[in-house]
Amino acid sequence: MAELYLVRHAQASFGAANYDKLSTLGHEQSRELGRALRAQGAAPTAFFIGDMVRHRETLDGILEGLGLTAEPEIHTGLNEFDFTNLLDAKYPAGTGPENMHTERKSHFRTLRDTVLEWEQGGIPDARESWADFTARVEDARRTIMTPDHKQVLAVSSGGAIARMISHLLECGPGQQIKLQLQMKNCAVNRFVYSSRSVYLHGFNETPHINAANEERLLTYS
Question: What percent of the chain has pLDDT over 90?
């Protein structure tokens, strides 16, 4: 069976004017993950990313740590849903909780409740429906789980990864956001698959983090 390493991007720039770029720590996390995967014997021969800057920068760091060069295939199904638009659609004209876009606790508490409503068909003014989000993530999964390669590495975002996992495991309503909010930066989710079946083989793994560096390298946003 083939194997997919599906990696959440490294720490981005939460609260900044442009979230879609890695922080200095994020660049370090991605390089360290690449080194850890190389130590485990990982040798992917195909690479996929969404079209987000943080995906590209994370892959660049992983490749540096692996000692490889590669040009990834881009699939927009690996992109995160637009959480800023979703929150603004739920709370128009500044009616949302204070600092919901800039303060982590407020943001993730509000996002949790908003995603639950979105999943149940609510928030009709959102730019993307839940059904469309689910469809594009599933299309990305089918594309990247190619039978032509023994080992594939893809970089995505927490929401898309959680949607892929919850869909494959046939989880009930509300499980998507629970999985998403657990997802660490640069966490590895592993799948084994064939043309007939797909199995989740590892969830939210951080082989680059240990007791000596956990306080510095372990982040969630």
Answer: 86
